[in-house]
Automatic annotation (TrEMBL):
Signal peptide stretch: 1-17
Keywords attached to this entry: Hydrolase, Signal
Family annotation (PANTHER family): LIPASE 5, PTHR34853
A biological process term (GO) from this entry: lipid catabolic process
Listed name of the protein: Alpha/beta fold hydrolase
Biological classification of the source: Bacteria, Bacillati, Actinomycetota, Actinomycetes, Micrococcales
PROSITE patterns documented for this protein: PROKAR_LIPOPROTEIN
């Protein structure tokens, strides 16, 4: 019965495509993808063994931009505990002839979209629209990879602000791209991420030489990155955004570090917050913002029962998932909006100073009259100028 419904719906949307320009073709293609996508995310049983980056399943994306070819992918990765997991995401490659040495890869870390499986960017009707700078990277000959992170799209352990898990997911989808013959992807990688994704790619950069030594990471670029988690939460917890981020983050820490004594939510959240956060964690940041605000607003000022930067084990968990710039041995690009109310400019400036003191080569761009949502898009010109100046392989 389901297959018949899919065929009828597909015929209807394809009829529309016959008289539509490229943007409409992509919408129609996205609708077709959405009709058939859900079985793609069901994990095989049993899960086959595989090294990190091994592809388990692919599915063509009909919504890929003109001049490119795209896939949803399900691939092996590892979480913070070293456990083999399956993670979903997308891979998009230019078509046509590749250079003799193959195409470099840009591996993208997406900003917060939620924490539930259905909040994964690859589930959207136009999943590549989440990748800021996608067209530019494709036009410059890059293969673009974009992980959903563990627990989003495909079932798996929570990964929200769990730096090592996110970072490995970012590296492993770059590995996965190389095993799709049409991409002709090589080992050269640029990492690029926004907000939560900034934390993800910074952790990826810090671990790449040990975790994925076959990849040649040439640089890591971030826009308004989540770096020092204690400072981030302390600065934001007094508004609805901070409560929302806190609901995702504290739930993830409680689940991922469940074996750590004192990691129960009741040790850091008020009783009313403990009751509310499961509902919030089922809601996606975009599309269900109104519902999130309705739950979060009454919790402002009454969310935390203590200071997580001082109460253990929360202080240690926050510190372990904050970026240590001394682990990064590649050039870094950092963009920050000067009126960002979520990731405060002074927090990013402190991270940049610490990175420079640790010996990291950092190019820092503060973009005027720019807040959190637009910083990655408005930094693209500076980003590509920085990439052009990187040492060539």
């Amino acid at each position: 019965m389901r297959s018949a419904i899919v065929l009828v719906a597909a015929a209807a949307v394809l009829a529309l495509a016959a008289c539509s320009p490229e943007v409409d073709r992509r919408v129609v293609g996205g609708a077709l993808d959405e009709l058939s996508e859900h079985p793609f995310y069901v994990l095989p049983d049993p899960i086959p063994a595989g090294e990190p980056g091994t592809v388990v399943r692919t599915e063509r994306l009909h919504s890929a931009p003109d001049g490119s070819i795209g896939w949803r992918v399900l691939y092996h990765s590892q979480d913070v505990h070293g456990t083999d997991i399956l993670v979903s995401g997308i891979v998009i490659s230019p078509t046509g002839d590749a250079p003799a040495g193959g195409r470099p890869v840009m591996s993208w870390g997406h900003p917060t979209t939620g924490a539930a499986e259905r909040c994964a960017p690859s589930l959207g009707i136009d999943p590549d629209d989440w990748v800021e700078g996608l067209y530019d990277f494709l036009n410059k000959g890059y293969v673009v990879t974009a992980t959903d992170y563990s627990g989003m799209g495909a079932a798996g352990p929570d990964s929200y602000l769990i730096g090592t898990t996110e970072g490995r997911n970012v590296l492993d989808i770059a590995r996965a791209a190389r095993s799709i013959p049409e991409t002709k992807a090589n080992d050269d990688v640029i990492l690029w991420g926004h907000s939560q994704g900034g934390q993800a790619v910074l952790f990826a950069a810090g671990e790449a030489s040990d975790y994925a030594p076959e990849l040649s990471v040439h640089g890591v670029a971030v826009a308004a990155p989540a770096t020092e988690l204690g400072g981030l939460l302390s600065a934001d917890i007094g508004d609805v955004s901070g409560v929302t981020i806190g609901s995702y983050a504290f739930t993830a820490f409680s689940e991922v570090y469940a074996s750590t004594p004192g990691s129960e939510l009741s040790t850091i959240l008020t009783p009313v917050a403990v009751e509310a956060v499961p509902k919030m964690n089922e809601l996606c940041l975009l599309g269900q913002n109104k519902e999130l605000h309705e739950i979060a607003t009454p919790l402002i000022g009454g969310f935390l029962s203590g200071d997580p930067t001082k109460v253990e084990p929360w202080a240690t968990m926050l510190a372990e998932n904050s970026v240590d710039p001394s682990t990064i041995d590649v050039p870094m690009f950092v963009a920050q909006g000067d009126i960002d109310e979520l990731v405060k400019p002074e927090v990013t400036e402190g991270f940049v100073d610490a990175a420079r003191k640790a010996g990291v080569t950092v190019e820092f761009e503060q973009i005027p009259k720019t807040g959190h949502g637009l910083i990655a898009l408005r930094a693209l010109d500076e980003l590509f100028a920085w990439i052009e100046r990187l040492p060539q392989p």
